[in-house]
TrEMBL record:
Lineage: Eukaryota, Viridiplantae, Chlorophyta, core chlorophytes, Trebouxiophyceae
Keywords: Carbohydrate metabolism, Hydrolase, Magnesium, Metal-binding
Enzyme Commission number(s) of this protein: 3.1.3.11
Protein name: fructose-bisphosphatase
UniProt cross-references to HAMAP family, sorted A to Z: FBPase_class1
Family annotation (PANTHER family): FRUCTOSE-1,6-BISPHOSPHATASE-RELATED, FRUCTOSE-BISPHOSPHATASE
GO annotation, biological process: fructose 1,6-bisphosphate metabolic process; fructose 6-phosphate metabolic process; fructose metabolic process; gluconeogenesis; sucrose biosynthetic process
Domain Fructose-1-6-bisphosphatase class 1 C-terminal residue range list: 282-412
Domain of life, source organism: Eukaryota
Natural source organism: Chlorella sorokiniana
Amino acid sequence: MAAAVTAAAACAQQVQRTVSSKASSSLLAPVARPAAAFRPAAVAARRASALRVLAQATAAPAAAPAKADANKKSQYALQTLTTWLLDLEREGTIDNELATVISSIATACKQIGSLVNRAGISNLTGLAGETNVQGEDQKKLDVISNEVFSNCLRQCGRTGIIASEEEDQPVAVEETFSGEYVVVFDPLDGSSNIDAGISVGSIFGVYEPSPECRIEDMDDPEAMMQKCVLNVCQAGNELLCAGYTLYSSSTILVLTVGKGVYGFTLDPLIGEFVLSHPDIKIPEKGKIYSFNEGNYQSWSKEQQAYIDSLKDSSQWGGKPYSSRYIGSLVGDFHRTLLYGGIYGYPGDAKNPNGKLRLLYECAPMSMICEQAGGAGSTGFQRVLDIVPTKVHERQPLFVGSKWEVEYLESVLQNKPAPHEN
Ligand code: FDP
């Protein structure tokens, strides 16, 4: 711990204060309009009258009533992530600060998506030569994506603490000047697929602002780090926002702020995420399971029995479940969200808690799944109820259609299967 604290303290000391004064405006703050009040009243009146005459003279007799025209939607109307966030702000679902954090995450994802697309021709494939705190070899793109994500979050000035899969400890952000949201993320999940050009993704979660873990408290780095860890280790049910971006045949950002799930596809020609999947609902029951069956021998007998039963066509009207597994959580999860079924990474004899990390993999995916009408479970407990005891804690994860997840829980817990609707 002491070494980690020293490292984190050293790291924190290196952070340069790039924003010294409190900024008053934001990316999404309403822009003050040059008001008509500056126009002399007589000129304004003359202009209004001239416009009325012109409108009468040019109005086609068969024109639809003005009210109907105003309500007609233009065929060129787009709902972009930015206008969607503005709508949420207007209705009071999120505030301006959270909208700014989400915008900066979207910018990071656009940049990572472009790097992923060009990885093979920009010498970005292969290993970086380092291992992360979890002992995994870091790919070049893991390291770069982490830097891109961290830069965007710092520059937006609204994050107090960031915790990444690629960092040993949470990092207090010095550049923050308001907001102080806690952001957890895996900048490039599934990166072992990168060199083969297969889908990868970024996953993120945003928690309530926390002003407790401050860079100003550097005179006691150990106490500061304890506060940082404490503020990051929150249960998933405290998440304000969770999302992921899939880098695949298209770049798709899927997001929830606790009011349904929305998907935005990046239009590369205008550089904007455009709403393409409004109010996503996962099917109640599916026909696909997604597990790494190579681990079958080391699963519990209950876990084996569950997968055996999905393959037993006699139980499912003559057709067994189909198996699909990319080995990239974001890709496998996205398919499960749209088509239904179950994604699972169980514990096994060697790793009782499986492989996936609670904070920036299991919890955000579970929140998205629940918001879409599905479920997220460890097999014995709702994922969103677990309070992590450490930043990189692992948990078994089963997410997907409600029926398949409940059926899995019933098999693991030796309980009767849920009823089919
Ligand atoms: P990766 O190691 O390539 O980053 O948690 C990381 C993850 O990929 C997930 O994206 C993926 O679902 C899982 O590991 C794959 O693990 P297995 O190779 O053990 O199936």
